[in-house]
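Re: the 443-residue chain
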Amino acid sequence: MEYQYPRGNVFYRKLDRVYPLIHRGEGIYLYDEKGKRYLDGSGGALVVNIGHGHREIFQKIIDQMGQVGYVHGTQFTTQSIEEYGEALGRRLPSGLNKIYFLSGGSESIEAAIKFARQYFFESGEVQRWRVISRWNSYHGNTLGALSLTGRAGARRPYLPLLIPFPHFPPPYCYRCPFEMTYPSCELECAKALEKLIQMEGPETISAVLIEPVGGATIGALVPPEGYLQKLQEICTRYGILFIADEVMSGMGRTGKWFAVEHWNIIPDIMVLGKGMSGGYFPLSAMITKEELVDRLKQRGTGFVHGHTFSHHPVACAVGMAVLRFFEKKRLVEGCAEKGRYLLKRLEELKEFPFVGEVRGKGLMTAIEFVKDQKTKEPFPRKERFTEKVIDRAFENGLVLYPGTGFVNGVNGDMVMVGPPLIIEEHQIDELIELLKKTFLKLS
């Protein structure tokens, strides 16, 4: 059975898409009710870090529900919440030791920018409220998070509703917005942040929010060496909080527990989601430093923020089970090695004339498509090249994650390849063969 709007009472984002009915998931594969197998080459939206169908995770859900399924975050705590906080805390970068559990990445971004604002409000710097982020970023779809997101197409229908937060260009070396080359550019893309701060007024800025490795909008964009260090140095100089959005890149996805660790960066606030629960339950977190939370404690206000399903006991039980699975299977260490192999195999795809750049870190990778490899000219949006790739791959039993519009707000085509971290080398080979089969149909 398949579903397409207007069939049934449920509607989805893609109103013209035919949705197969998935019957079960096992490892890196999904099976629809007709028996067709799909290799989950993107883990949904790079969510399914530990793979599908692990019964030990199901059992933890059942066990916790048998004890208590829900308590409100202003009334009680549970053993599952406190134990997961302790276990996750042991994996966090030094100094990040206070965790606020939520149920989705957008929620955690909202919590982060509100926390930054309240921190300065309680510190007497009431004029600091603005948050700077980057173009070609993705931080979520709630209005605050969308105001920070740098994806033109997602913003366009809602512009009258958005907060006018300032943005600066990403470190997009393949298409440098400054028409320069690294390292002779001397990180002009990082200097752009300081120029923007000075133009907007540093006394009005509460935080700078960035994805350490660019995610859903621009596709596994790895910054050049020295870039993140330069951003943090600028933030420190102006007394601005530095927020790392690790919703997609965190929890082992890049071959470190957190992407900032590749560059020895410790942000003031870090946001997690997606892979925390591996998709088994809605779970995210806003994480910060004790000295920042202490400011709220000293003022006697607490954190003026909350959601019905924050600090959820079942979500935290799932998070704990997933964390233990990570540790038992040594998935983070394995991801680094598997990621190198995946990138090496993806480079082979440059034999196809429409493959422009292959990029990424660990098992967070992307393929950017171009009309002309030499000039890097993008396909016109009307050709819907990414959609063609996604559809042909789907026919071949391969699931990828699409991205468009990152070149000029309209053009730009890419797919993200981010399979579960449990993938084996021979399954990476299978994934590559499915990609080649897909690309041959488009040649």
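The domain at 2-53+330-442 is CATH 3.90.1150.10 (Aspartate Aminotransferase, domain 1).
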